[in-house]
DNA sequence: GCAAAAGTGTTGTACGTACACCCATGG
DNA sequence: CCATGGGTGTACGTACAACACTTTTGC
């Protein structure tokens, strides 16, 4: 049995995307008073775990991510460490810990990880009935400092998405240009001219059109595309010069 | 007296700049065998300290930075957390810890902070005789995983410097455009056309020319400039639109 | 007067932006 | 046949890249 390190954890902010926008994977946390049955806590948290003794941060994050999604090989990136004194010491968290204290310190440092998944790969199932996608622009009440952690993750996502083609991690393997445009629009909070957007994507040799179209839509079916990381890695060298 | 947290530290990568390039502030670490007097360890480290109980990460970083530079109000930014199992467990570090163990864990998680200082503000003095500026492109032997930490800090600096006007933190209050150009060239590893560079800076309203010139140089004296964070904050809103 | 860096303008190219119409499909 | 989104090209302006000569100072 692995022993946990009582004062160090990782927290994974898992982002997903569907036609209704950008989502975060949250777990519903409930605490009933054993005597009265009263709901003392009913909020949501991102998924985190304490790091095990002898374990790396990255391994702990992968483990956490696997536990919640059942998936491996998923985009995962460390983005910030949180260590404020109050983060597990609000009245609510003291209450939570008084019922669930498993040798956990009262000053837990947590390293935040950002993960991007194709939301169609995650089906809500019986094992994870308390887990669900929540819209990032309309979050429910959150535990700990998870509101802050999600905000910071989002900030990082917005930055990163402009510098590297990581947006594709949020799309199904085959996608249409409209889906791609909607994704970028909702991450960046802008809107793009459709013709200019398509022109720009057309220049990206690593976004490759397929001989495949949408089926069963009540309009002209859109062409599908795939992203090729290979082509990206081979062609990205060109853009290594900068301005200030 | 403050008690340290045995398994959590912060490490500050302090960057400076002078005419010979970009520098890191390093401390010489020496360990002599008490019996034979033989030098067991003679390398360099960035400055870090364990976090105290009841202390925030940011506070710990500020404290560390003050201890090494004697300065406050300096640019400081968290950039990455390091937690590999081996980072304090090489033969060398085991040896170091066997002579200097002050209740320090054998798996220390360290949060890396990046700091930028005007190197003319730091004078090597008697109190910090073991501290010196070392060129980032020619580092001496480093302890712990500090080579990796510095590399990651540098990567972050290169990214950040293109997105925000933080380069000025590395320059004296009053600087010439040549100094500024050299700074950007050596951080980004490129070179710029002088006329185009000056044209571009000319557009930045927050880089303000002074009625003051260089003195005592054997050529046409250059005009001095200052950076105004105020003007920057007021005018930066304009550039909040993006492309992919 | 010479060495060393400061300072200055023009032109071509590439890229971003703005904008309107026909096409294919399901119902 | 109609509603819905798919798909396409041109004209303009902005921003970046390339390039050479004159000026001021200390020695």
Question: Key features?
Answer:
3-stranded antiparallel beta sheet, disordered C terminus, elongated, Arc Repressor Mutant, subunit A, alpha+beta, 244 residues, DNA-binding, homodimer, 7-stranded mixed beta sheet, Nucleoside Triphosphate Pyrophosphohydrolase
Estimate the mean pLDDT confidence of chain A: 92
CATH superfamily of the largest domain in chain A: Nucleoside Triphosphate Pyrophosphohydrolase
- What is the overall shape of chain A? elongated
Helices and strands of chain A, in N-to-C order? Answer: EEEEHEHEEHEHHEEH
What multimeric state do the chains show?
homodimer
Count of the separate structural domains of chain A: 2
Total beta strand runs of chain A = 10
Q: Output the CATH topology of the largest domain in chain A.
A: Nucleoside Triphosphate Pyrophosphohydrolase
Instruction: Tell me roughly what share of residues is in helical segments of chain A.
Output: 25-40%
Label the structural class of chain A: alpha+beta
Please give the most extensive interface between any two protein chains, plus how many residues each contributes: A-B, 32 and 32 residues
The profile of the biggest β sheet of chain A is:
7 strands, mixed
CATH class of the largest domain in chain A: Alpha Beta
Report strand % of chain A.
25-35%
* CATH architecture classification name of the largest domain in chain A: Alpha-Beta Complex
Number of helices of chain A: 6
Low-confidence stretches of chain A: 238-244
Q: Nearest-angstrom radius of gyration of chain A?
A: 20 Å
